[in-house]
Amino acid sequence: MIKLDNVTKIFGRGKDSLTALDHVSMNVEEGSYLGLSGRSGSGKTTLLNVISGLERATAGNINVDGINVQSATDGRLAAFRNKTIGFVFQSFHLNDWETALENTVLPLLLTRTSRSEREKLAADVLNRLGLSDKIDSRVGTLSTGQCQRVALARALVTKPKILLADEPTANIDSEAENEALNIIDELHAGGMTIVLVSHDPKVLERVPRTITIEKGRIVKY
Ligand SMILES: Nc1ncnc2c1ncn2[C@@H]1O[C@H](COP(=O)(O)OP(=O)(O)OP(=O)(O)O)[C@@H](O)[C@H]1O
Ligand SMILES: [Mg+2]
Questions:
Q1: Which of 36, 102, 136, 208 has the most Cβ atoms closer than 10 angstroms to its Cβ?
Q2: Which pLDDT value is given to residue 93?
Q3: Residue 98 gets which letter from DSSP?
C-alpha cells in the first residue's frame, strides 16, 4: 500500500543543508497498523509529508496505493490526497474562525456529496469523538484537546483508505486518548491502513508493530 525505496529528503543547500530522511526504505502492507517513533527532529513528520506528497522527496521512489508520488503532478497529488489519505497534522491546521463542523466538512467540499449529507457525515464523526456539544462552536474557542479531535474528525470524514496521524493524541487527556485510540483500532479492524506517529510508549503499546527512526534513518524495523 505504501512503498518507499531509498527515500532521501534534504532541506536547504550546501553547508546549511539538513538531511531529514536518509535513504529510507519501508513497506506498509494494505490494512496494517504501523507505529512510528523517534526523538524530536528525527524525521517523523517529514516522512508522513513525503508519503502524502505534501513535501517532495529529494531522491528515491514512493508508491502509495498505485500512485507514483514522486512523479505525479501537483493536481494529481491533490486529488489523491483528498480521496485516499486522511492526515492528522501535528499542529492541527484548523481554521479558528470556522466552527468544528465547518472545519470537518472541508475535505468533503471536493467530493460529490450534497450539503446535507456532508454535514451529517461530519456531525457523525464529531459525535463519535465526543464533540457533540461543540459542533457549532468556533474552533478558536475550543481547548487544545478538542481541536485535536476536530483535526482527527476532519481526517476521517472522507473515510480514507490510509490514515497518517502525527501525534494524534499528544494534547488530550487519557480518557479522550483512549477514545481516539479505540476509534483508530476500529478503523484498523475495518481494513484501513494506518501510520501513527507517537513517542508515547503507552500509545505505541497498543500498536501491533512500531518502527523507530533516528536522524532520518530507520533503526528498528
Ligand atoms: N521546512 C524545513 N526546512 C528546513 N528544515 C526542516 C524543515 N522541516 C523539517 N526540517 C528539519 O528536519 C528534521 C526533521 O524534522 P521533523 O519535523 O520531520 O521531525 P519530527 O521527528 O517530526 O520531530 P517532532 O517529534 O519534534 O515533531 C529536523 O531537524 C527539522 O529541523
Ligand atoms: Mg513532528
A1: 36
A2: 93
A3: S
pTM given for the model: 0.94
Give the residue from 42, 1, 40 showing the smallest Cα distance to 24.
42
Of the CA atoms within 13 Å of residue 139, those in its CB half-sphere come to 23
Compute the distance from residue 130 Cα to the ligand 1 centre, in Å. 32
Ligand 1 pocket residue status of 38, Cβ below 6 Å: yes
CA-to-CA separations, 143 to 181, 197, 214, 220, in angstroms, rounded: 19, 22, 32, 35
Would the CB of 91 count as within 6 Å of ligand 1?
Answer: no
Does residue 4 contact residue 26 with C-beta atoms inside 8 Å? yes
CA distance 151 to 83: 17
Q: Which residues surround ligand 2, an ion (CB under 5 A)?
A: 44-45, 90
Which residues face 138 on adjacent strands?
99
Domain ranges in the chain?
A: 27-56+79-220
| pLDDT over 90 (residue 180) | no
The CATH number of the structural domain formed by 27-56+79-220 is 3.40.50.300
Distance 61 CA to ligand 1 centre (A): 20
Is the pLDDT at 1 greater than 90? The verdict is yes
